[in-house]
């Protein structure tokens, strides 16, 4: 009898990325002979969509970044406990964003993280988890890889722009104690970029380690702010040094407006996730800014490498040990280094092409969805 998996989602979010990942994993499992089902439920009332599946059995029940694990019915029972199978919750943000889902004490609950520190955080704060692993997001290669010298975009960044000033203003409107925590965490992290969010929170508000996930969830704007602040500063550095950067994603026209419409910021527009491989396949240098993962990798990195872009990314021991000479690295505390690297690589196209080719070869061996699925099944043991 074929193995079976039930994928559960709450509709499309974030450029349709989670649905995209779900479908890629599902396709790989189907190619291995698995029976796959996909269920979309209302995030405001997931129990209604889950009840028809009560009593059914699967080898795996899999979701990405949803609140579904925490869903209960009118009897107070966890809905997923009424469906047979290992529950695997893929957390592609810091786990504190998914505190409610992770806190659900399901009978057969497992988590997948994309950062080793996140894995440790989940293991410590959610001891009911049967298994917690780290698997960075994989990446698809485009149908056509354009020769390096013929690529349309000299330098590109993909992701959303959020004005850090608007986040600060939102935090300031909150309660005084929470705003003080927000300010303390932000200042500490920006002064100590190797520090994790949980370390900073514990230092500012000591003695509450057992309640840390809930506290960090309340103070989520601190994480939003540091990500937005570093992203804005990085792009401003590029544009201010006349680097030919094109940005893809939601909101970038706001930065252009904020800067008085005088900066030569090339706007590529908002695109769905399935278009990213072709964008990276047409990009010479792909810039990455990681959302404060200190032992993990954002999917911009494998996307760049899979599609032959030279990846310029933040320094991180986890990534540097994994990729070595397959990418270039800048320290988050000195963004001018990123500018220097990009200028050097734009001037030396031959060297840039050599590094990109090395990265592409590595990614084809390690970062495909087939490899991801094989690694995952090794942990799931089904």
Task: Provide a descriptive summary of the structure in words.
The protein has 382 residues and is α/β, with parallel strands linked by helices. It contains 16 helices and twelve strands.
Low-confidence stretches: none
Give me the side-by-side strand order of the main sheet. 2-1-3-4-5-6
The share of residues in helices is 40-55%
Strand content: 15-25%
Largest sheet, described in full?
6 strands, parallel
Order of helices and strands: EHEHEEHEHEEHHHHHEHEHEHEHEHHH
**Terminus-to-terminus distance:** 13 Å
User: Using DSSP, what is the number of strands?
Assistant: 12
Give the averaged pLDDT, no decimals: 96
Structural class: alpha/beta
Figure out the total of helices.
Answer: 16
What are the salient characteristics of this protein?
alpha/beta; globular; single chain; 382 residues; 6-stranded parallel sheet; 16 helices; 43% helix; 12 strands
Short description:
With about 375 residues, this protein is of the alpha/beta class.
Q: What's the arrangement of secondary structure elements?
A:
Elements: E1 4-9, H1 17-31, E2 35-40, H2 46-50, E3 57-64, E4 84-90, H3 99-102, E5 109-113, H4 116-125, E6 131-134, E7 153-158, H5 164-172, H6 176-191, H7 197-204, H8 212-218, H9 220-240, E8 245-248, H10 252-258, E9 266-269, H11 276-281, E10 283-287, H12 300-306, E11 310-314, H13 317-323, E12 328-330, H14 336-347, H15 349-366, H16 369-380
Helix pairs in contact: 1-16, 5-9, 6-7, 6-9, 7-8, 12-15
